[in-house]
Amino acid sequence: MQDQENRGGELRVAGLDKRFGAYRALADISFTVQSGEILGLIGPNGAGKTTLLECITGLCPVRSGTVSWNGRHLRPDERNRVLWYQPDNILPYGRQRVATTLSFFRHVHGAARQELDDLVMRLALAPVLGKPLLNLSKGYRRRVLLAIALLSTHPLLMLDEPFDGFDLRQALSVMDLLRRHVSRRAMILSIHQLSEAEKICHRFLLLDQGRLLGVGTLDALCRQAGLAAGSTLEEVFLALT
Amino acid sequence: MPLPERPPRGRLARCLLAQELRSLLVSPALWLMLGIVSILVGYSFLQAVALYSQASRTALSFPELARGMNPLDGIFVPTFGAYYLSESLLLPFVAIRLIGLDKESGALKLLLQLPLSPLALCGIKISAMGLLWLLTLLPAALVLLFWHNLGGHIFLPETAMLFAGHGLFSLTVVAIGMFAAAITDSLPTAAMLSLAVTLGSWVLDFAAGSQGGIMALLGRISLTGMLRQFETGLLSFSHVAAFLCMALFFFLLTALWLHPGRGPASRAGLSLLLLVVLAILLAGAMQSHRALDLTENRRHSLNPADSRALRHLQDTLTITIHLNPEDSRLQDLEHGILAKLRRTVPRLVVRYARTESNGLFAASGDKKYGLIEYDYNGRHDASYSNSAREILPIIYRLAGIRVVQEPVPLYRGYPLVADASAYRWWFYLVIPLFCLALGIYGRQGRW
């Protein structure tokens, strides 16, 4: 089933609009992301990154807009067949042992035992498998959450702030792991650290106060911002806002 | 291109049920509740046995008194009173965790992405709670065992009714707790909301006890009022239906408010619709007087000959009562012959004549006060009696029928002088220590 799920595909988001009362949290957001691609969702705090991810997932009702997979419109209750969203700052089943929680999600996702063993090894989780998630340091908690996300077999994976809480070496290691996994699926990463986003994302979606500033590769965004090729993402972002 | 296949829902449901059980088992609230239930049940049982023994000493000498010695009223109902306390005050704290903890930890955002509807998700959670509720019956099971060992009598149908009543009460409280957690953002707020309902139900039942009209109706459909019906050993279909309707109502509301794709306006509108449906269902359920007397002494039943005769009354029997709602004579009449007539006579109209209340000790200005009037087939009669021995002959006289009572086996009662104090350590020490050990085991995340 995993092979079937991981065939190439394209997610298309069109005209997504979300309001909280009079406040327009997302304004007419449209973009695409394809298998084998990492799309970085870039923006300052409060830009609407998490809201956008929750709206795409169907966890948050939208005013208007569509989400489709390979040209087929996805109703909110169908999106769980295509995408998995890992929120930031969660602590699922904190009192249970890490091994139990990971095993639960492995079974839920229908992932192979080998897949879990591989993730435990690559994320160096072996020392904490017998401990409750609540008792772990922030770094270990992030790794466990990443393992839960990577156990999913969905063609599209959306991670909210996946590098938050990691030091440089750990972040590089996680990037390497994500690159291995993206060969089989598409990823959308919500990142506020621009230097890390530059290192791993193929394309970027720049968001500010719910407005879409631009979507594309760094070179394309440089051209859009009127900057010379080779400018950093930070310079592009500042130029566009 | 077709969408990827969904994982088998059966496998998902099994995984989730096991996970929910683990979540509850690691919760200190569950073990604390079980420990407290054990102490409360033990204390109630020991007190009940002591009082029953005192009463039995006299009853053993007088057979007339022995007929009143019924283990359901003397032992089991008082003992299960401890369960009522824990179900009203402690169970909500466990129930709110089913949803509230997942909301606080963020696990709910993951669970709502699984290919299970919010309804299925809530169903799995309430099933897990139901399985662990059976664990809380451990002290009750010991009560039955110890009472049997003491030589006490157990009549299974009426005892099973008591268990069923508490099962339905608990189910409703759990559904209320889940709903409270679904609409609030923190566990303390959800706990306050749940307690407001359970305690409010108790207050409503208490207040309705001495009042008529709408208050009496609300008292009848309050959770406490409905549970009391099961303590009498009468299987009333309307009360079973009312309990199930309420539990289903809060269960559906929980699923509705957890549904991520619905906005506040849609949720509020559907909630209102559900409320209207519940009101209609409750009104319909409370109209039914179908019931099954499961007591050993057949206290809710008339003599079979009376039942047959009353069932065959073709015209409408109208009873007009001139009594204040707080008058104890009306209470006796309601719970005695009137309740039996409601379940037996096909066309019965009971009217409560307007009477001015002059307080408990002052005489009423109404000359008809205390009178009960009977009208059947154009004939009229009246009496001040609230006893079946006088009322039934009046009805038969109006209907022009003669009824010869059938001989029925005499209920002799079960007086027993026993000392249950030897069992106290089970309730006060063994089970609480067992809970403590399992709670510590759970805190280490070992489940």
Describe this structure in words.
The complex is a heterodimer of chains A (241) and B (447). Chain A has helices spanning 2-5, 49-57, 98-109, 113-122, 138-150, 168-182, 194-200, 218-225, 233-240, and strands at 10-20, 23-34, 38-42, 64-69, 72-73, 83-86, 156-160, 186-191, 203-208, 211-216. With 241 residues, chain A is an alpha/beta fold. In chain A, helix 8 packs parallel to helix 9. Chain A starts with a helix and ends with a helix. With 447 residues, chain B is mostly helical. Chain B has 2 domains: 9-294 and 417-443, no CATH class; 304-399, Glutaredoxin (3-Layer(aba) Sandwich). Chain B is 66% helix and 6% strand. Chain B contains 18 helices and 6 strands. Chain B has helices at 9-25, 28-59, 63-66, 71-89, 91-105, 107-111, 118-136, 138-149, 156-183, 187-208, 213-220, 223-231, 237-258, 264-287, 304-311, 328-344, 388-399, 424-443; strands spanning 234-236, 291-293, 317-321, 348-352, 372-376, 379-383. Chain B has a 4-stranded mixed β-sheet with strand order 4-3-5-6, with helices on one face. Chain B has a two-stranded antiparallel sheet with strand order 1-2. In chain B, helix 16 links the parallel strand 3 (317-321) and strand 4. In chain B, helix 9 (156-183) crosses helix 10 (187-208) and helix 12 runs antiparallel to helix 13 (237-258). Chains A and B meet through strand 6 and helix 3 of A and helix 1 and helix 6 of B.
- Give the distance, in angstroms, between the N- and C-terminal Cα atoms of chain A: 44 Å
Biggest sheet statistics of chain B: 4 strands, mixed
Q: Strand tally of chain A, please?
A: 10
Mean pLDDT of chain B: 91
Mean pLDDT of chain A: 92
| Assembly of the depicted chains | heterodimer
Number of domains of chain B: 2
Percent helix of chain B: 55-70%
Largest interface, Cβ cutoff 8 Å: A-B, 47 and 37 residues
Number of helices of chain B: 18
Summarize the topology.
The complex is a heterodimer of chains A (241) and B (447).
Chain A: H1 2-5, E1 10-20, E2 23-34, E3 38-42, H2 49-57, E4 64-69, E5 72-73, E6 83-86, H3 98-109, H4 113-122, H5 138-150, E7 156-160, H6 168-182, E8 186-191, H7 194-200, E9 203-208, E10 211-216, H8 218-225, H9 233-240
Parallel strand pairs in A: 3-8, 3-9, 6-7, 7-8
Antiparallel strand pairs in A: 1-2, 1-4, 4-5, 9-10
Helix pairs in contact in A: 8-9
Chain B: H1 9-25, H2 28-59, H3 63-66, H4 71-89, H5 91-105, H6 107-111, H7 118-136, H8 138-149, H9 156-183, H10 187-208, H11 213-220, H12 223-231, E1 234-236, H13 237-258, H14 264-287, E2 291-293, H15 304-311, E3 317-321, H16 328-344, E4 348-352, E5 372-376, E6 379-383, H17 388-399, H18 424-443
Parallel strand pairs in B: 3-4
Antiparallel strand pairs in B: 1-2, 3-5, 5-6
Helix pairs in contact in B: 1-7, 2-4, 2-8, 2-18, 4-9, 5-9, 5-10, 7-9, 7-13, 9-10, 9-12, 9-13, 10-11, 12-13, 13-14
